[in-house]
Amino acid sequence: MCLNGYRPKLRKPARFVTITVSMTTLDDIVSLCKRRGFIYPGSEIYGGITGFWDYGPMGVELKRNLKNLWWKHMVQMRSDVVGMDAAIIMNPSVWEASGHTSSFSDPLVECKICNKRFRADKKEEQEAHEKEHKEKTTWTEPKNFNLLTEVYLGVTEPKTKAYLRGEITQGVFVNFQNVVDSTRVKIPFGIAQIGKAFRNEITPGNFTFRSREFEQMEMEYFIKPDSGEGDTWFEYWKKERITWYQQLGIKKEHLRFRDHQDDERAHYAKKATDIEYRAPFGWSEFEGIHHRGDWDLGRHKLSYRNPVTGEVFTPWVIETSGGVDRAILFLLLEAYTKEEKRIVLRLHPFLAPTTVAVFPLVANKQELVRKAREVYEKLKPDYQTAWDDRGNIGKRYLSQDESGTPFCVTIDFTTLEDGTVTIRYRDTALQERFPIDKLAEIINVHIKEDFI
Ligand code: ATP
Predict the structure, then answer these.
(1) Residue 262 CB: number of other CB atoms within 10 A?
(2) pTM for this prediction
(3) 410 exposed, middle or buried (CB, 10 Å; 0-12, 13-18, 19+)?
(4) Best mutation site among 210, 259, 277, 296 for ligand 1, i.e. most ligand atoms within 8 A of its Cβ?
(5) For the segment 37-50, what is each residue's pLDDT rounded down to a tens digit?
(6) Who lines ligand 1 at CB under 6 A?
(7) Looking at residues 130-149, what average pLDDT do you find?
(8) What residue ranges define each of the domains in the chain, with the CATH number in brackets?
(9) Residue 4 CB partners (closer than 8 Å, separation 6+)
């Protein structure tokens, strides 16, 4: 592509050639998130609250970008999936029917020395705790601990007990008939949703990995009740979802599927597999593909009538159930690169909280600042654009590298003479000069080149 004589040099993203001086730890990410405004501990000035996190200015943009990309891929670009947004609190009968009040639980054991509680199915957490005691620890027998979070509604006593949803899925199922009646969907079709879920986790931890409030991005795909169809769509969605994460920059070797064993499958699942990431704390799930069969629609006594044949049946469901917060955590781990002289967050440009940062070379020259402001205002409608005129230019680059900004544009004295600016690329730290009116084209070419 030739832009009036200016040919942007397209390079492979430098993540393939970087010198990484050490492995990324969870502490690296926690500290970067605090330092650069991605994620803060919830209610921090009051001592925090276990299992809750607040997303800061950078974090909220990263999260929005991820959710928008998911929505584009799962809804906008498909003709067989529609979206919806259900209420967080539902009639408690929903949770009775879905089996969550009786079966949405984890096995809990208590240390007989200090009464701390752990999940009986997470042996590594128990073993780590045993090392904290000098004497031999013994444990209570496992008992089931329900994860639903109770809330109390109404103005008269006794108040009505309801639940914050433990998974966003049920909001889709209870609206199945509404969606069929009010749109033109025909089986096979999907309903997608993004929203908050709440679980009273026994051991929140590993930063945002196991929180008590988190966001899910899920799609329920309704199919004919037929085992051949079930297997085909289960395999189809497995491939779709893992490929999507690879396109966002997660290396193939850092991802794997793990099939659930018979004794660990959720109460609703005929078949289930997790997409796992190789995190510093071990291979960990961040999306599940579940064959839910007719469990949910059956429990809610809902069915489907084929509009052509008149046949009535209870559809089966293949679900893709991803965690927004876990995906964010793993994308940060994947992107974080320690080089000899800098830390770079090599986020995919479509995910980066800021796409382009604009700097006047110095902050005390009015003509430079005015020109830089013009460039900033010009880019702002189309890109997440940041302004920085603090300190020296080198420090500004390093700060943008840590936030994952793929492009920095510097306005200097030459700009005032010939209308060209320096564009500096995050991944290579290389700089090139281009006319201001070509900036958008250059950025677009690079972003597209980087999108696999
Ligand atoms: P785990 O076994 O780790 O408790 P799960 O199998 O119960 O997870 P699902 O019910 O399949 O999780 O939920 C779908 C997705 O929602 C998970 O893959 C994860 O990304 C996200 N998720 C579930 N629980 C949490 C949590 N406590 N904190 C953050 N994300 C969560």
Answers:
(1) 5
(2) 0.92
(3) buried
(4) 210
(5) 999 999 999 999 99
(6) 167, 199, 201, 210-211, 214, 216, 285-288, 321-323, 325-326
(7) 89
(8) 26-90+165-335 (3.30.930.10), 346-450 (3.40.50.800)
(9) 435, 438
